Amino acid sequence: MSRTPHLRTAVVGTGHRAQTFTRDLAARPGHRVVALCDPSPTRMAFHNRLLARAGAPPAAEWEPDRFAELLAEEDVDQVVVTTVDAAHDRYIVPALKAGCRVVTEKPMTVDAVRCARILDTVRETGNSLTVAFNYRFNPVHERVRELLAEGAVGEILSVHFEWLLDTRHGADYFRRWHREKRHSGGLMVHKAGHHFDLVNWWLADEPDEVFGYGRLAFYGPEAGTRHGLRRAYDRAHGAEEAADDPFALDLAADDTLRALYLDAERDDGYHRDRNVFGGPVTVEDDMAVLVRYTRGATMTYHLTAYSPWEGYRVMVNGSAGRLELEVEESRWQPPRTRITSGSGALHGDTAAEHAGGVRLTLRPLWRPPVDVPVTARHEAHGGGDTRMLDALFGPAASRNAGSTAGTGSTAGTGSAATERDGALALAVGLAANRCFDTGRPVRVGDLLPALGPVDGAS
């Protein structure tokens, strides 16, 4: 009996987030990770150990400068890009030109020039790109989409969206490379891109104009000194001043973080445990944005990266009522919380010890409010990771792909995001960043002409 050949995958960027893809593809029928690409041999060796634990053969290890050779010599079918955000296009473009299927972590890229390069390559090659917006596959978010599509609030007129990052998760963006906008595009691109994509998807519309204000209000040297929070160390490892600092991260205390980052410092000098009140920090931590969509709806959005609790509130106002969602990812965090996740995660793939509830409420005009039943999970990005992986790579043999959305199952109605979806989510963040500098509203079509007409076709 003949066997279906495995899809041969290269994972580019072997840091923390890449573990999700390496482990999943190693265990998923019909797939094989044949190549790893990263500046650090230590991190690639860690991922090869993940493959070995899954009973998969080792992957070849490649340096980034030899990526074109990797594609040819390893006979790669698909490429998963999980590098530093600013490097995504460096791998997306040649992989598309080589005819590979490409899945990239969000954000698709970090600026308009790189975005245009990716969109132009898609048009030239006829190959498509998938952006891994896992929040589309969260069952609660899918239920919101269903209700809005069914007309539960009538014509959608406005949205208010507030996202709160606590002083564990939010602070973590200021310990690592994300704190420099040249690497990450800032939190408007790296983090809020998730949220902008959700609203684009929920509304089945496209952003037209953006205005906003943002500043570094809590982290960084100036604010840290002003608030009496700054301590005199550059990075936490080996620093006496960091020993009892609730904002410090102890890499040596977690096996995964030690293996991926502390042990890998000899390869590239990257420090994963920088002082959040040290410099340089070139991204904002408090941002307010106003977006107008092509069919007239507006969104007010606020991201706070230093909150005592973590979660989000979304309110959708329509001609027939209002839909309200509140999610408490953590009610509070004690200082110096030890990381216990096997993947070394500070957030995302493991439930917070003090996670709260999820409430979805429909408030029709002239009728009593209705509590919409939902089944929620706090780990694996609300259940989105597992369901997204099933959608991208086919259902795992051990799970029932016939389950319905909203039940906490792995199947769902979430649709994978395309390169246009990725560009539209990016556009809101880039426009907001420009507003922060100029104080003037920005039209999406002017910022990203490579998108073509912004007309609400989703």
TrEMBL record:
Pfam families, per the entry: GFO_IDH_MocA, GFO_IDH_MocA_C
Positions of region (Disordered): 327-353
Ranges of residues in domain Gfo/Idh/MocA-like oxidoreductase N-terminal: 7-133
Gene3D superfamilies referenced in this protein's UniProt entry, alphabetically: Dihydrodipicolinate Reductase, domain 2, NAD(P)-binding Rossmann-like Domain
Residue ranges of domain Gfo/Idh/MocA-like oxidoreductase C-terminal in the record: 145-334
Family statement: Belongs to the Gfo/Idh/MocA family.
Record's protein name: Gfo/Idh/MocA family oxidoreductase
Organism ancestry: Bacteria, Bacillati, Actinomycetota, Actinomycetes, Kitasatosporales
